Amino acid sequence: MIVLLPLAALVARGFDGGLDVFWRAVTAPDAKSALFFTIGASIVVVLVNAVFGTLVAWVLVRDEFRGRAAVNAIIDLPFALPTIVAGLTLLALYGPRGPLGIDVAYTRAAVLLALAFVTLPFVVRAVQPVLMEVDRDMEDAAASLGARSSTVFRRIVLPNLMPAILAGAGLALARCLGEFGSVVLISGNIPNKTEVGSVFISKQIEGDNLTGAAAVSVALLVLSLVMLLVVGAIQARRARRGK
Amino acid sequence: MGSSGNAVRSRFALPKLTLRGLALGYLTVLLVFPLGMVGYRTFEHGLDAAWNAATTPDAVHAFWLTLLMVAVAVPLNTIFGVGAALLIARREFRGKALFNAAVDIPFAVSPVVVGLALILVYGQTGWFGNDLADAGIQVIFNPLGMIIASIFISLPFVVRETVPVLREIGTEQEQAADTLGARPWQIFWRITLPAIRWGVAYGVVLTTARVLGEFGAVSVVSGKLVGKTETLPLHVQAAFEDFNLAGAYSAAFVLALMALVAVVAMQRLRTREIA
Prior knowledge:
- The complex is a heterodimer of chains A (243) and B (275).
- Chain A contains 12 helices and no strands.
- Chain A has helices at residues 4-14, 18-27, 29-62, 68-74, 77-80, 83-94, 108-133, 137-144, 149-178, 181-186, 197-206, 210-242.
- Chain A is globular, with a radius of gyration of 21 Å.
- Classes of the chains: A mainly alpha (243), B mainly alpha (275).
């Protein structure tokens, strides 16, 4: 099969020289810092987008204003826009010579920006349908009993949305961990600073160090697969509860 | 809604405006500004300059290569996707859970890792490297490998959009047709396919958008040979690194236009699905 065979080759190559060589490749200073930075940046971005994604979904479902349909449509843009174009656009705007006078190019903030851009739709699109189906009677009842809007949100709305938020966040995290195209231009790929895991891998490939590249790839792969399994478990639990 | 309901709702009015402002502000900074910027940079030296930058031989070659990849990868993944969705939604078989999970793997794998994995299978030192070389087939650093990479990367979309639709429509109509003596392919063409067509179409749009824009996997497999294995997204990066900003922005603009078309199509299909 197209998917499993290459991955088997990857894992085999990663452990080519035994566990020892694998471990040394993954914990080499450059590799380690790239992996840790990738994980840290991904977690920060996913948290931000979990909050803002829920907010955007809320506004799109509950609020009514002119141009709502247009806003709803552009949410999908990061899915449709090629990642390299996303990187270039962000660089044009928030890089040197940018019209806003904000220059974050080649910093860690730039990586966060790029990741936030490409993973924006995940939480929005996961929360939106759930929010549309949620029964508003509970909220109205709570409000008429004197609950403040913040209480209603915390005690009633949020618990209903939580599985969807987590599912979207899990997908976003998996995407962040492997993101390449949008990051490669704007981050400057400075080792030990702005270099993410996927860029590190591509440099190893270009340097013909396929075994080292495979080892770090396996590490990234395991992380993302765990994320997807968690998402799957959350969805299975929700499906069971629904019945 | 009665007046008491309005009274209850109106207490949300102030936070509502704040929330709207916050949400739209975030979207503007993250999405709208950057897009406008590409348009501005593309046409900043006039229409002629933009046209010239977009139609250099390398750019045109990259454009056609990108379309070729779409023309091969999208139909293949559509056929596979519908077949796999039918298997997942309608059949029970051993290892179904594994199959179901395997379909999602491309979503979890970094594009760069996909490229590397393909090199390790089909490259010179890879598992099948020698056999392929003997047969005179070059996969890596060749459009063939890039097509395989695109198929890998965009594999799950049609499956994931079609399975829920198949589950929702149920099997009653199919069973009715079956008892009336319809053959399996008749049932598929006359009943199943018309019912799932919008779901499939949505998956096709997502697949197309992904293949058009795929960068990481294709970049690793392609070897970046200008005028040979350079797709439009790769051309954007190559031009940018050559300080050919006009070329980079104009190619990016072409890709952004295609993305906009995809977004509009997605929006249309989504409203159609609900209706």
